[in-house]
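Researcher: I'd like a candidate sequence for this fold, 470 residues long. If you have to choose between options at a position, lean toward the conservative one.
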């Protein structure tokens, strides 16, 4: 049966992709269908075909999967933010466990890995620990970045981009169910201000207009709120009026981010502070952090404490160890580790993040940490060779692309007793784990953590021991 574009067909969904799309086969040909779930029997419409696979649109569900639920958000399918809102949360967690397991087994070569609950038959087998999920998987995001555009009536609107597009989907009543409840009011203040003073929304096609995005952040522990407008210019007209309205709404920090480039990057480098100290604070565990508009800070503070707590547990520090924290950001994991380590060294390529890291350490009276600006693969060899700084434990928390190969080789050269790998992408984690295991390390513990309910993303913590030193 030859299928052409816009042809409809019936298919059973047997699997799900990395980003939560349903996968089914028809006459040996693989179809990816957004919003379809494992176990669904659906009618789909062909959109785009390659030689061995194609993409289709969900037309209707004929027989729903057992885990299918009604989405809470009316634009869940159109918006690109949630890929799995129509899958029961318990089933989402099972999917993520299986995803991590499959990557570590297939890409990482961990043939001795077993799923949670499986019975071990020999001493060299490892059982993956159960995923750490959320009791309340809504309203967990402490950060939201809303694109600003122009509606059909010529008035400014806020929303999110539809999946894989730059088409703006207005947020119903300005309220996203993953974000803080305060976002609705703050967005409303911005849009009303823009309408009143005729401040134009940015048009990325024409590269005209002023307001591109609104960044909102909240310190869950402190309750402090931040508002930052990303603008295609150097100033915001009548900014003093917006500031007064934000102060009345209880906002602690108001700023502008200047971004005049033709780019998909949201934030500009230059920050103009309009009100407040230029940052807000938050706590993870006992550690207080300073968060500026450009700071990287985990968006789910409830699960971040569990993620970092798992990393600290896996490191199993006794108080005298020297620990290196690579890709340390604003020092969140570094500070956690410093509570139980002898000395912690943090490395991060972004200078502003290291400024925050040093300020955070000082704010918390943590004296056994030292931070370096630069690439981990350059800083580590220099400190190791010039200053004989060694490592008992190395913690890595790299971006999605995983660790640089030079960084991995440096880890091997330094021969730490333990490597604790915190990953936001289990496929690159598996690749790096395989390399370290081929060069003297063995996996001892694996635990996924669900940082992003309703999406296909999952964090994972892996403990690897040096075979010669343990």
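Model: Candidate sequence:
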């Amino acid at each position: 049966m030859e299928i052409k574009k816009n042809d409809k067909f019936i298919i059973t969904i047997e699997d799900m992709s990395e980003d939560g799309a349903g996968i089914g086969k028809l006459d040996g040909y693989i179809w990816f269908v957004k919003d379809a779930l494992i176990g669904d029997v659906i009618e789909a419409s062909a959109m785009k075909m390659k030689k061995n696979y194609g993409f289709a649109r969900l037309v209707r569900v004929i027989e729903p999967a057992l885990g299918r639920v009604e989405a809470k958000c009316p634009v869940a399918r159109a918006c690109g933010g949630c890929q799995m809102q129509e899958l029961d949360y318990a089933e989402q967690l099972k999917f993520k466990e299986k995803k991590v397991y499959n990557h570590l087994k297939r890409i990482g070569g961990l043939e001795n890995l077993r799923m949670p609950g499986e019975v071990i038959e020999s001493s060299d087998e490892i059982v993956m620990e159960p995923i750490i999920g959320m009791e309340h998987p809504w309203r967990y995001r402490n950060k939201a970045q809303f694109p600003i555009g122009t509606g059909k009536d010529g008035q400014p609107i806020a929303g999110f981009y539809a999946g894989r597009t730059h088409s703006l989907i207005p947020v119903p009543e300005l309220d996203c169910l993953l974000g803080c409840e305060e976002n609705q009011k703050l967005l409303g203040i911005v849009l009303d201000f823009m309408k009143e003073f005729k401040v134009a929304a940015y048009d990325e096609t024409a590269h005209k207009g002023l307001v591109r995005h609104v960044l909102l952040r909240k310190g869950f522990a402190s309750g402090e709120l931040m508002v930052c407008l990303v603008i295609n210019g150097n100033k915001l007209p009548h900014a003093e009026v917006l500031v007064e309205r934000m102060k009345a709404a209880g906002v602690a920090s108001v700023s502008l981010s200047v971004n005049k480039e033709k780019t998909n990057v949201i934030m500009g480098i230059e920050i103009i502070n309009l009100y407040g100290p230029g940052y807000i604070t938050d706590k993870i565990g006992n550690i207080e952090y300073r968060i500026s508009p450009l700071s990287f800070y985990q968006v789910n503070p409830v699960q971040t404490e569990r993620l970092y707590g798992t990393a600290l547990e896996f490191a199993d520090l006794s108080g005298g160890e020297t620990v290196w924290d690579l890709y340390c950001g604003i020092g969140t994991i570094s500070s956690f580790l410093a509570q139980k380590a002898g000395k912690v060294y943090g490395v991060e390529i972004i200078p502003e993040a290291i400024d925050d890291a040093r300020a955070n350490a000082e704010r918390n009276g943590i004296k056994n940490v030292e931070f370096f600006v630069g690439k981990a693969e350059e800083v580590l060899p220099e400190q190791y060779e010039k200053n004989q700084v060694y490592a008992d434990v190395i913690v890595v928390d790299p971006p999605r692309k995983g660790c640089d190969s030079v960084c991995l080789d440096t880890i091997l050269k330094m021969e730490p007793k333990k490597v604790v790998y915190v990953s936001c992408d289990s496929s690159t984690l598996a690749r790096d784990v395989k390399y370290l295991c081929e060069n003297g390390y063995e996996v001892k513990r694996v635990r996924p953590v669900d940082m992003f309910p309703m999406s296909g993303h999952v964090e994972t913590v892996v403990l690897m021991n040096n075979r010669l030193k343990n």
